Amino acid sequence: MTTPTQSAELLAATTLLRFATAGSVDDGKSTLVGRLLHDSKSVLTDQLEAVEHASRNRGQEAPDLALLTDGLRAEREQGITIDVAYRYFATPRRRFILADTPGHVQYTRNMVTGASTAELAVVLVDARNGVVEQTRRHAAVAALLRVPHVVLAVNKMDLVDYAEPVFAAIAEEFTAYAASLGVPEITTIPISALAGDNVVEPSAHMDWYGGPTVLEHLETVPVSHDLTGCHARFPVQYVIRPQTAEHPDYRGYAGQIAAGVFRVGEPVTVLPSGRTSTIAGIDLLGDSVDIAWAPQSVTLRLADDIDVSRGDLIAPVGDAPAVTQDVEATVCHVADQPLTVGRRVLLKHTTRTVKAIVKDIPSRLTLDDLSQHPAPGQLVANDIGRVVVRTAEPLALDAYADSRRTGSFLLIDPADGTTLSAGMAGASFAAAEEPPAADDDAEWDF
Questions:
Q1: CA distances from 333 to 303, 372, 377, 383 (A)
Q2: Using CA atoms, how far apart are residues 284 and 147, in angstroms rounded to an integer?
Q3: At a CB cut-off of 8 Å and minimum separation 6, what does 440 contact?
Q4: Full-model pTM
């Protein structure tokens, strides 16, 4: 039988890294991504020919590699990134999913989208401008989203004569700021995306730098996909009851293990009801197994016939998350319509969607200086703030700091299904004080 550790070793040669790029306008994000794809031989011939043709039409002698990711017509016309561009590529050492995110302040929400599932964020800085307001904003968003690895790519070093003191000053300032946000690992790399210095190949102009290139770091940065050490969590997606002659009494609960390990014979509790049972069997790809781990999709069978439905969470007895109807969280508001106190919403957490109401918005985070603006009354597009949400039914949430999978949720407009905000349960790095506990409100009808 393959153990979780053995499984991780088998996948080591083809591990997947999700990463996002961010930075201020004109810092060269799309050029870096284009250079990365081009120099790693990840661009198809017809794609490169299309870029060369578009570049010639714009009067450029060399192909503009930024066009490999800027796919919208408005992006190409303005030379900026507006939407999140996803690219998939691979090297012999690793597979990658890349999210190229916009740099404008009004597209901060797009950066939140791109970095929400990333294990690494590449923040670009123009060597001529140094750390600017948007650089600090993107570092703060990466810290809020608990992105474990941050790379500072000091771009356009060719425009400052590849001067080491320029790079050292920028790296020192950014590292100090990011460390104050709680970013666990920061790597700084001097590059020229346009010329290709230290992107895929080492630069001949910066012999004073002895660290990895961008691609080398992406290929070797330790990324742990081993969720077996986390608290075991199994959101129920579907109840299987075939009721056939072959399986007259079969009752299984299907879903994807969000974290941890489940074993046959293990006592578990079903939340939010709190009923307990024992795992009688685990079915994986048509076979019965004794053990299963994240992120496998399995069917659990319990020893007792208890009420379990879609949206319930199965967890080990003694290691279950708290159940609550008062959710205190940090949210990134992504909709054009504001989020206001008293607004009725749907809250989607794993496979469970419940009615809820925004009870309080204690503060809005000012990303420029990480100060808290108290009682803003509402959050508008691109705002990040603290909220208290009251749900119609109990939820079993982990703190986002403990689990990005079971500590996150969405607030949805019940009228049209539009996503309003992306939420992270628990404390944020910038909250000096936690919001007050929610009180009951007699006017609520749930």
A1: 43, 16, 13, 5
A2: 31
A3: none
A4: 0.80
What is residue 298's predicted lDDT score, i.e. its pLDDT?
Answer: 97
Does the N-terminal peptide bond of residue 295 adopt cis geometry, omega within 30 degrees of 0? yes
What 8-state DSSP symbol labels residue 55? H
Q: Rounded to an integer, what distance in angstroms lies between the CA atom of residue 11 and that of residue 427? A: 34
> From the centroid of its chain, how far is CA 100?
13
Residue whose entry in the numeric block shows the structure tokens 């969280």: 329
> Is residue 90 within 8 Å of 40, Cβ to Cβ?
no
pLDDT tens by residue, 121-179: 999 999 999 998 888 888 888 888 889 999 999 999 999 999 999 999 999 999 999 98
CA–CA distance, 307 with 314 (Å, rounded to integer)? 12
| Residues forming a β-bridge with 420 | none
Please confirm whether the linkage preceding 338 is cis (ω < 30° from 0): no
User: For the chain, how many residues are written?
Assistant: 446
- Chain centroid to CA 239: how far? 29
For every residue of 109-140, DSSP letters joined together read HHHHHHHTT-SEEEEEEETTT-S-HHHHHHHH
The alpha carbon torsion through 10, 398, 183, 295 (nearest 10 deg) reads 10
Query: Residue 99's closest CA among 77, 128, 69, 78?
Result: 69
Q: Using CA atoms, how far apart are residues 217 and 366, in angstroms rounded to an integer?
A: 32
List residues bridging with 380 in a β-sheet.
Answer: none
Q: With a cut of 50, say whether residue 432 has pLDDT above it.
A: no
Report residue 307 as tokens: 């009420």
Task: Answer for the pair 157, 206: CB distance below 8 angstroms, yes or no.
Answer: yes
Mean pLDDT, rounded, of the chain: 84
Looking at residue 295, its amino acid is P
Residues 98-121 have pLDDT tens digits of 888 776 666 677 788 888 889 999
Q: How far apart are the first and last CA of the chain?
A: 49
CA distances to 306, 309, 365 from 380, rounded to whole Å, are 43, 35, 12
Judging by beta carbons within 10 Å of its beta carbon (0-12, 13-18, 19+), is residue 329 exposed, middle or buried?
buried
Question: What is the b/e burial string over 271-309, where b = at least 16 CB atoms within 10 angstroms of the residue's CB?
Answer: bbeeeebebebbbeeeeebebbbbebebbbbbeeeeebe
In this prediction, residues 220-247 reach a mean pLDDT of 83
